[in-house]
Amino acid sequence: MRRFSWFNVVSLTLGFAFLYIPILILVIYSFNAGRNVAVWQGWSVRWYVEVFDDQQLLDAAWVTLKVGLVSASVATVLGTMAALAMARLGRFPGRLLFSGMIYAPLVMPEVITGLSLLLLFVAVDFDRGFWTITLAHITFTMCFVAVVVQSRLVGFDRSLEEAAMDLGCRPTATFFRITLPIIWPAVVSGWMLAFTLSLDDLVIASFATGPGATTLPMKIYSDVRLGVKPEINAVCTLVIAIISIAVIVASILTKRQEVEREKAERAAFAGG
Amino acid sequence: MAKTLGPVRRKFSPWNDPTAKPLIEFRNVVKRFGDFTAVDDVSLGIYEREFFALLGPSGCGKTTLMRMLAGFEHPSEGEIRLAGASLAGKQPYERPVNMMFQSYALFPHMSVEKNIAFGLVMDKMPKGEIETRVQEMLKLVKLEKFAKRKPHQLSGGQRQRVALARSLAKRPKVLLLDEPLGALDKKLREETQFELMDLQQELGMTFLIVTHDQEEAMTVADRIAVMDHGKLIQVAGPSEIYEQPNSRYVADFIGDINIVEGRVTAIDGGLIRMEAAAPRVSIVMEDDAATSVGATAWMAVRPEKVRISHDAPIETGVNAVHGEVWDIGYIGDTSVYHVKLDDGGTFRAAVANVSRTVERPIGWDDRVWLTWSKTAGVVLTA
To answer: How crowded is the C-beta side of B320, counted as CA atoms within 13 Å?
Structure first.
């Protein structure tokens, strides 16, 4: 049996080539021994060593990491709350508007989000820097978290919470003992998503930043404009590694949750 | 009613004792959801150690009534009292009642033990006592071997037991059971019904069950409340509900029944005479229903109390109709004959299959007579 026709093989190869050859070249050249990025001069890890000697680069990485951690955490709390409100409150006046407004930032061009935030920060005379980038990232990642968590809440059996309250559990305790543990995988993958989005972001951060707060994507972008340095390849390779790990962990969590749920459902049908 | 009815389950009838105080009291309870009235002026007393069933089709308000007792809904009007105290304003976590949910609502992230212990942990019971109580509960529902399992690793029947153990663990004053056996297959459901009855006797608790399955209600309950459109239609013991329904609705909802509409022609010392047009038949019933001459009434007789025969009865004018066998339902223990009457309508007769062979079996298209005695049915006025 021939499962792969030539057409399939070719289109698959082409697709993957388009996606991954540029990244592959970047990764390979990050191990180039020579200074010239266009000429291969043998394997070396010297640029990785230089990265860790470059204080500016390390500072930028540290800012990025801090922004990512803080904004992802706050966005997860806010996004989860929004998802709960959407899934639970039933019909309240303006529900449709509210849900539309939660999803709007998903499709809003980043330039517009960035510009509007910049205008806001200028209008309220907020000192731009670390906190403005963080606030901007909370704003645009929150809706992603809300979408992820809400999709989990759709299948949530409310009688679980009623059962907990019936057994003497107060509403707040019910949320932390019953609801949160059950939706936890969705909350974690929402956090991962928010974190990687924050790490990646160049446009919104450029608008929201001020003197003294440079994120890694901003640093790389400004360096590259003065010519590609091999350290940049090394930094990018490291970023790719971190993001790949985060995405893989998030998808494994989501997958496992699905498998668990399917297993539970199967058992329910086979019950008796 | 002066008549004695069917078998008496056990000598337990506090509702007939004027000095007994009900444990649960619904006083003129009304519940509205917007324009829809789910529960309409219900007054009802349920006594300690009673196994009480709320029975009715879906949407009749039985679940809402139970959820108001649990505290998930609050009455629009009226009051619910438990052990003499009003439950108004009490939240579900403040009420000494526990509920077993239709979906079981087992916490998927906790083991069987943790599920059962949940209510006890909430009550801040000492650890040692919790352990003892959980073991006791596991033993009660025969799940000792499954203590460490998660709910999704259990079968439907086992999950049902965990849900039961969890709701019993706190030893509530009242256990509420919301369609508890709905998800089980017929055989397991029947077994579990008897287990529930034994358990209720053993623990001496008050059980309130909501069900749409009349057989289930008849089997387990001391008393049954039949509901329709938010109202209580009849509240009585199973045999009374079956043998003395107070309306066509109850008669029709519980089991199978033949109903004939007629006009009352005479009332004479406990005998009611009626004339019916379709089928054309004169009826004489021994009943003291509150009706008057000239009023419309209905005679209701259960199929198993109708005799079916090839031969005409001695007195053909009264309580006798004839027709052709249209259909035969063989159920095993009984056969149900659907007879198409000569002057319109159908009538059903059920015959217990007491022996394996019959000399002159009744077959399709046979002409038969259907007769019933004066005491076989009831006269209904509503």
So the answer is: 13
